[in-house]
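Lab notebook, bench 4. Still working through the backlog of constructs that have no structural model yet. Next entry is a single chain of 413 residues. Request: give me the structure tokens for it.
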Amino acid sequence: MENIRNRWVIAVAGLVMQVALGAVYAWSVFRDPLIRSFGWSIAQVTWTFTIAILALGFAAFAGGLWMARSGPRVVGIAGGILYGVGVFLASFSAHRLWWLYISYGLIGGAGIGLGYIVPVATLVKWFPDRRGFITGIAVAGFGTGALITAPVAARLITSVGVLSTFAILGIAYLIIVVIPSLFMVNPPEGYTPPGWTPSAAQVAQRAARDLTLREALSHWQWYGLWLLLFLNVSAGISIISQASPMAQEITGVNKFVAAGLVGIISIANGAGRFLWAWLSDLIGRRAVFLSMFLLQTVVFFVLPSIHGFGIFTVLTFLVLLCYGGGFGTMPAFAADYFGAKNVGSIYGLMLTAWGFGGMLGPLLIAYIRQNTGVYRNALYILGVIMLVSAVIPFFVHPPKTQAFARDETRRAA
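Model written out:
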């Protein structure tokens, strides 16, 4: 009973960490104040966010390797310090764009990556009976971080200015991430929840043993999962990057109404991380990704013909549900296929798909919009990409022979 209580305390601590780390999605709140204050362009300011996401992906991999040697607590504390210090140092970036890139983008992004992988990799070990459910809860906090941070940051910017806001938030982020990190510990070797026995279906879909990072990379399935995450990120983040101007062009609403869409879809980003991950425990990870790709295919083909803001909001909400669902489901997917012991490094390296998808999606939709003058063609192309992507879940399967899987199933039965 003590282990059960302990693992739920760790789950709550991980959720708190992710909410603070997910504040990076509130970057759009800082965009216009920085442009007005220092005369930078939209593209120049947006590169700060891009650098942060790229740094996040590679730092998550480094954090996974570090966790294998030093444990999750040390990595989480380091992540909180880097994140808080990076955002705080951004308060000294007046008329120095390069400093903003280094502080918020590089240092802050690295801190986010280190912090992000800690609760994800730790909780899949504590909850082998509910991998999808628990990782969904953890990363849901990241998806909803902007929903909490955006109004706070906006009020602070109005009261004390954008640079002072960086300083205040940097201190807050450091505290909110470091303290929960103290609770991050791995379970005892061979831990299983009291009274839980994996079902035959769970055994058949899980790795026969814990693979190392090197062994995981020797299997094509790792690259298949990377591709699933990359494609899903590319589609969803393209909508995130263009939500407001796209809503204005397609539905004709003004910029103030369109701005409300950003807050609504951030709810979808968080909710999808939990809902799809929870569903994956019931119908399987492959079925979830197949469903998300097919759903997005329909949405991207329908969106250009929509003129009502309400229906447009519902459809973009669905895309962001799927975007979040990829992050909620993939940690459990990786743990199923390669084992939970080294999931920090295995899934950490997989998160580079987030960084590359964060570049491709926004650049693709912006390039097509700039050269054609409308979003319609870009949305159709994304629809085709999602339709082709739906083929991949049919082919990915656990990296083990069918004979071994049958033996495991018989033993479990």
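Notes after review: Residues 220-251 form the longest helix (32 residues). Residues 211-393 form a domain with the Growth Hormone; Chain: A; fold (CATH 1.20.1250.20). Flag for follow-up if needed.
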